[in-house]
Amino acid sequence: MMDSIETEEIRVVEMYMMDKRKYYPLTVLSGFTIRGILYPFGLIKTRLQIQVGQEIYKGTFDAFVKISRNEGAQGLYRGFWVNCAHIFPSLAYITTYEKIRDYLRMNTNLNTSQIKSFISGGLASIVGQTLTVPLDIVTQHIMLLGNEKNSSEVNVQKKLKSLQRIHVPPEMRTSRFGTVSTVIREVYRQDGILGFYKGYFVSLALFAPNSGLWWMFYDTYSDKLQDALPDWVPRLAIHCVSAPCAGVTAAVITNSLDVIRARIQVEGKCFHVTLERLWKEEGFSFVFKGLSARIVQSVVFSFFIMLGYESLKRWSLKDEYKGQVRW
Predict the structure, then answer these.
(1) CA distances from 63 to 46, 68, 290, 293, 298 (A)
(2) Which of 31, 97, 226, 305 could form an S-S bond across to 124 if both were Cys, CB 3.0 to 4.6 Å?
(3) Is 1 contained in some domain?
């Protein structure tokens, strides 16, 4: 009986099974690397969502080409160092997720992994978004700043400038923290401390269900694939396929809220005014604004984040669980 327990496969690695001294430093390093890879997709998605119709960029690829040509690599990574501060809310998010899963396992009769994942992901998102929204607002304003000095397409820069609510003088852009300090100061001057929480509730309305759905679909796809595929297929490969599928599913369901959130945080209008304006400008098609960039971002992000997340959990396993978790 003891042998069967010891050799029984553990499908989900829980927080209590890991050595935290290994897990957290590796998580920070992994998060920084993944953000470096994915940041340009987030910048492109934001610009597509903020523009009216297709007046600047026709789509994801067109935006990538124009930004690369006009602004160079610096344009694709504008605001990246501010965005890196998201690593700390991310740590709070994943810790909350794991702790709530552990609590539900110990104190409830929920036997379905998908339900535990949905609840844990949704509640973890509330913690994460409380810390993330101010960083998002600062980053999004910086993302809209073009390279006026070296741009080869003046018309594109004029249209991009018309979307900006905050003007950053050229002399401030050249200083090390000039752009960031100017944006923070102007957001505070225009709206006070609440300006850093514009769209907070719509962010919760987006990211809490998006997070819950992502984890729920991730567990669903993982379980279905593990049951359908032979045992010789690596579990890590199954996770890396399930994660992008979950990302696409959640992105399609919640994209309209993501568009509204981005507009509220940049333009500063309330929910119903933003929704009315989007409907007037785009009609029902606003639901799909930036969706292709978001799907690309979600697929790549989900793949790399789960490759890192599941690998780090296995590397951080305590000795007594290593024989029960398959790679």
Answers:
(1) 11, 8, 11, 10, 18
(2) 97
(3) no
Residue 257 lies in a domain: yes
The residue type at 107? N
Rounded to whole angstroms, the maximal C-alpha distance in the chain is 74
Q: CA-based Rg of the chain, rounded to a whole angstrom?
A: 21
State how far the Cα of 216 lies from the Cα of 203, in Å rounded to an integer.
19
Given a contact cutoff of 8 angstroms between Cβ atoms, the answer to whether 98 and 54 are in contact is no
How big is the CA angle at 299 (ends 293 and 301), to the nearest 5 degrees? Answer: 95
Spell out the SS3 assignment of 206-240. HHHHHHHHHHHHHHHHHHHHHHHCCCCCCHHHHHH
Domain count, the chain: 1
H/E stretch holding 93 reads helix 87-107
Residue 307 lies in a domain: yes
Residue 74 is assigned to a structural domain of this protein? yes
The number of angstroms, rounded, from the C-alpha of 301 to the middle of its chain's C-alpha atoms is 8
Q: How far apart are CA 278 and CA 215, in angstroms?
A: 30
Query: In which domain, by residue range, is 75 found?
Result: 12-324
Give the span between the Cα atoms of 295 and 288, in whole angstroms.
Answer: 11
| CATH value at residue 118 | 1.50.40.10
Q: Which residues pair with 317 in a beta bridge?
A: 18
Residue-by-residue pLDDT tens, the chain, 327 positions: 344 444 567 667 777 788 888 888 888 888 888 888 888 888 888 888 778 777 788 888 888 888 888 888 888 888 788 778 888 888 888 889 888 988 888 888 877 778 888 899 889 989 988 888 888 888 877 777 766 555 555 566 666 666 666 666 666 666 667 777 888 888 888 888 888 887 788 778 778 888 889 989 998 998 889 888 888 888 888 988 999 999 999 989 888 888 888 788 777 777 888 888 888 888 888 888 888 878 887 888 888 888 888 888 888 888 877 777 777
